[in-house]
Amino acid sequence: MHPQPPLRSTHIAGGPRNALVYDRWGKYGRPVLLLHGLLFDRTMWWPLGAELARVCTVVAPDLPGHGDSPERGEIRLADLARDLAGLVRRLDLHRAPVVVAHAGAAPLATAFAETYATHHVQTIEESGGEVPEHLQFYAEPRHGRGLLTAYANWPVSAGHAAGRGTGPAFPHVADPVGFAAGLRALLP
C-alpha cells in the first residue's frame, strides 16, 4: 500500500495591507514557489502542485487582486518580493526556494532572486501550445484586463529575459508529470 500524497491546504500570510492567500502541499524538502501569470490565479498550479507534493513543499500564492488575495493600490515589485520572502520564511523550511513564474510574473521572480536567497528561477513564456481539454480550466484567465492597472509599473519584457522558457504557454498544465520531472532535478 502506498501512502496518500500530501493534500493541498489553503492559508493566509501577511497582514491586512499585504495579505496573500496561498495553497500549500507538503511540509518538508526544498520549497518550490509557483507564481501565476497576471490575470490568472493559484489554481493554474494545482495539477503541478499535486504532482510535486511527494518530494518537496509547494507554495502557490494568489498575487494581489487575483484569486482570493485582496487588491492593493499600485503593486511594486520590491514590496511584493518582500511579502513573498516573508511567506517563504514563515514556512520554516530553511532552504532557498526554486521559483517558477508564468509569463507576466517573470519580473517578480527576477526581483525576488535579486534580493532573496533563491536556489533556481524558471520562467515560462506565454506562447502557443495545446492544453488537453480536461485540463483547460487551469489555463484560462480568471480576471479582466482592468486588474492590470495595479501592475502598470512592472517591466513587461524583463521577465521574459530572465529564464526564457520555450514550448507551450502552459507546459505545467499540458504535461504536469513531465514538467514536475524537470523541476525535481533542481531540488537537491
TrEMBL record:
GO terms for molecular function: monoacylglycerol lipase activity. It comes from Paractinoplanes tereljensis. InterPro entries: AB_hydrolase_1 (IPR000073), AB_hydrolase_fold (IPR029058), AB_hydrolase_sf (IPR050266). GO terms for biological process: acylglycerol catabolic process. This is AB hydrolase-1 domain-containing protein. It comes from the Bacteria. One of its GO terms (cellular component) is membrane. Residues 31-124 form the AB hydrolase-1 domain.
